[in-house]
Amino acid sequence: MSEKTHPQPQDAALIPRYAGLPTFMRLPMRATPAGVDIALVGVPFDGGTTNRAGARHGPREIRNASAFMRRIHHATGISPYDRAVVADLGDSPVNPIDVMESLGLITGFFDDLKGHGCIPITAGGDHLITLPILRSLAADGPVGMVHFDAHSDTNDRYFGDNLYTHGTPFRRAVEEGLLDPKRVVQIGIRGSIYDPSDLDFAKAVGFRVIFIEEFIKRTAEDVIAEAREIVGAGRTYVSFDVDAIDPAQAPGTGTPEIGGFSTFEAQRMVRGLAGLDIIGADVVEVAPPFDVADMTSLLGATLMFELLCVIAGNMKG
């Protein structure tokens, strides 16, 4: 504990990084969100996956990889654990064989965090988990969103009338009044599509869709400056699908698309979100069964740390 009694990561000079029980950033595990400012949590669910499953194992492996994170951000100088009470609040309950029950369980879990004033940073899980999270965090009114992804995730349905997959969460979120579509920006979109109309919904409702072809003609800083203008000063959610990054650097994901941006470009863009009113964030679609040398799990952990520093940077400690 520090003098402020904020939980601190275990000291790697005293306890080796490979020793002890794995938690996010080697922080204490807490059973209750009471008194926690920023909650690091997992949602081990991939029941919305339509092809290669495996993201249910993401939270556990991201916890393992987060042992590589140290206390202080090298570029910004932010020590998030001195500015906020940060803890690992464990995993949301899920039912791996029942999508609809899982959606309800996840929303209930985040309702508890929200009721205690926590800002959650979540490790997924497939991208469907963002919908029940938004059902909780945006229950009081629609929010803006900065969305990093290779895919728009605004399809209508799959396999008949199935409305709930990792390809549909943001269409449902708009329909349910959880997202303000005029305050949504999607960065990194690319890859082949099923039908010429696949992106019609996103464009029709007002999402700003930045394809990778546009991204590479600009700088990461320029793109994120536009994103800041779009979401403005209002409440904003950040969702990062790791398949936004080129699979040469992030192979451990279920739906890889070549030609993505780099890990460093991702870091620069996340750092550019500093000062926004971020009510929550997630890093999703890390699928360890497809990973190589845990490099995608390390990416997930690093992005969570980057988001943690951005959110804690708004707090005075």
CATH topology: Arginase, Chain A
What is the C-level CATH assignment?
Answer: Alpha Beta
Q: Quick check: average pLDDT?
A: 95
Order of helices and strands: EHHEHEHEHEHEHHEHEH
Distance between the termini: 14 Å
Which homologous superfamily in CATH is the superfamily? Ureohydrolase domain
Annotation, overall tally of beta strands: 8
Describe this structure in words.
This protein has a single domain (24-312), classed as Ureohydrolase domain (Arginase, Chain A, 3-Layer(aba) Sandwich). α1 crosses α10 (295-312) and α4 (130-137) packs parallel to α5. The chain is α/β, with parallel strands linked by helices. The radius of gyration is 18 Å and the shape is globular. β7, α9 (263-271) and β8 form a beta-alpha-beta unit. It has an 8-stranded parallel beta sheet with strand order 2-1-3-8-7-4-5-6, with helices on both faces. It has 10 helices and 8 strands. Helices cover 29% and strands 16% of the residues.
Brief digest:
By secondary structure, this protein is an alpha/beta fold. The chain is 29% helix and 16% strand. It has a single domain (24-312), classed as Ureohydrolase domain (Arginase, Chain A), CATH 3.40.800.10.
Summarize this structure as a short list of keywords or feature phrases.
Arginase, Chain A; globular; 8-stranded parallel sheet; alpha/beta; 10 helices; 317 residues
